[in-house]
Amino acid sequence: xxxxxxxxxxxxxxxxxxxxxxxxxxxxxxxxxxxxILSVGLCGPLCHAQQVQAAPVVLKDLGRAxxxxxxxxxxxxxxxxxxxxxxxxxxxxxxxxxxxxxxGQGHPGYTGFGWYRIHLAVPENSSADWQLALLxxxxxxxxxVYWNGELVGxxxxxxxxxxxxxxxxxxxxxxxxxxxxxxAMRVWKAPHVxxxxxxxxxxxGMPLVGSREAIKALIDRTAYNNLRGHLFEIVEELISALVxxxxxxxxxxxxxxxxxxWLALAMVFPVYSIARFLVPQxxxxxxxxxxxxxxxxxxxxxxxxxxxxxxxxxxxxGLIRWTKILAVTGIxxxxxxxxxxxxxxxxxxxxxxLIADVVAxxxxxxxxxxxxxxxxxxxxxxxxxxxxxxxLSALISNLLQxxxxxxxxGARWTHWTLASKLSxxxxxxxxxxxxxxxxxxxxxxxxxxxxxxxYSVDQSEKQNTLQQEFRSAQELQQVLIPDALPALPxxxxxxxxxxxxxxxGDFFQLISLAEDNALLVIGDVSGKGLRAAMAVALxxxxxxxxxxxxxxxxxxxxxxxxxxxxxxxxxxxxxxALRLDADGRCVIANAxxxxxxxxxxxxxxxxALPLGLMEAAEYEPLHLQMDRGDRLTLxxxxxxxxxxxxxxxxxxxxxxxxxxxxxxxxxVAEAAQRFGQDDDITVLSLTxxxxxxxxx
Length: 696
What we know:
Blueprint: H1 2-12, H2 29-39, H3 43-50, E1 57-58, E2 66-68, E3 72-77, E4 94-97, E5 112-121, E6 132-136, E7 142-147, E8 150-155, E9 171-176, E10 181-189, E11 208-211, H4 212-229, H5 231-253, H6 258-266, H7 268-278, H8 285-310, H9 317-340, H10 350-367, H11 370-380, H12 385-409, H13 411-414, H14 418-422, E12 425-429, E13 432-435, H15 436-480, E14 488-498, E15 506-512, E16 518-525, H16 529-547, H17 553-564, E17 573-580, E18 585-591, E19 597-598, E20 601-602, E21 621-625, E22 631-635, H18 637-640, H19 651-658, H20 665-676, E23 681-693
């Protein structure tokens, strides 16, 4: 407490920086006596005694150089437009140093308006061939600059509609031809938020005055040094953004590769950081504070799921469930925090905003530690060296980042200094400072990129293997479903087969029998893809072997049912079997399949179970007599279940309308495809013409 009063005494006496050392306090009885006087309430009279009109700052030998305005300014809290006047008497104001926040100079916790004034004197013999300018590196949070009573520039916007920037660019204020005058600055400090520093408010950066050319050169040099100091960070984030962009393109090509999608989403925050660094005034404080929470949360959630995939934990149902719950919780808290900045909290309810900000932010920060749970679960598994490195680097990086966030966000109230120690550079390479968190983060990113590359290569190899299996299945299916049908005496046969995927579950067979007869079988296996194609191979083989023993359609279906029962793994197959004679006689047996159309009218068939459901199922034959010119059309349910963009089914009515006049099989299939194919489509048409006719 005495040390604080002692520092205040130095400030009031205008001797800050004149050899002050807290350890010299016992050897300085005069100042100790002054501190005791201050402690018993005599600060007011002494302060008033020291508040005298500061001497003007003489800008000698300015030329094209710059001079820091590091002398004492006159300062007063509050707001009055008259304080901009050069004739206003500011001798009763408090002397204060620029370049340091006002909270540490006797105004702790103060937010609102404060005025700075300083008298500048330009020698009469100064050259007039240059223009005077003022450089303001940084203020908290917005302000207006008056030169000899005239408003000459501003930084952000002061109330009633305040707008300020968390990453301000140095402001250059032109002052015109070199002349003496009074420089007055009206500064406004916004109410505190959870991210506030322990010491804020006012002219936090040292103002400089000089020629416009010198000021511009100083800004360029400062920008270069700033860029050089952050070069490592910028390169790292550019690489991250590029990897994220490539991952996004790869994911858009194959939406089933979820790891690439999470990798792309995890790289959104580096893009955001680059944009804020290159264009710091792109976002006002409201936009920054409204977006930083969701951006960090999205980055965390994407990192969770990315690590789950890369570390082989995606089969842990409990972990996935909790990750989803925490992801929803984090996004909700971030959106609540963001929504609050849409209101004018600086004027209406600053205290409530601070409380709500703390309540929403602390759980968000604690959620960052969930990545440590993922890493610990991964370490318990048997992993290769690359995944071990990834898990350990993620754990270390998360611990450093989380510790820095927890200790740094609320440092204003906790007074913890751990965050500043963690952000201190461990090494400096080429002018770029590298703290421990940056080194750990780089190792983590390198591990992510390497393991993600390895994961993509493995997935590509698996995909290639699967594609080869599909190609083998396609070749098998091309053998089982003939492209060219045998000639059927007395009939013109056309067929169309349109699988919805690489391989399908539809099948048909046309088998020539003795005495110019033939057996036609058409069907559909439940399910799609490779599994359905393998079931088709089983069924076609069974049909071929069964026909050698019997040509009766009902007996063929009964034999197929017995062979398939218990072998389709809970699936089934619908089937329609026809024995056709050259004179138009036809025997049909149905196993749960869609009935055919004869001359555009549906044939009524006795109901029956599909194949493979019940071993003792029986099938009843139906006899038909076709006349010359009759057309019999058979199809699978892919024709019926074609669905357009509005969700409408093709349906029986459209099929009946389509078959109202004679159509070839490919015409019917193409009509359904144009409507919107959703399943395998197979269509067969048989027209009785008499004589030997080739099939199509």
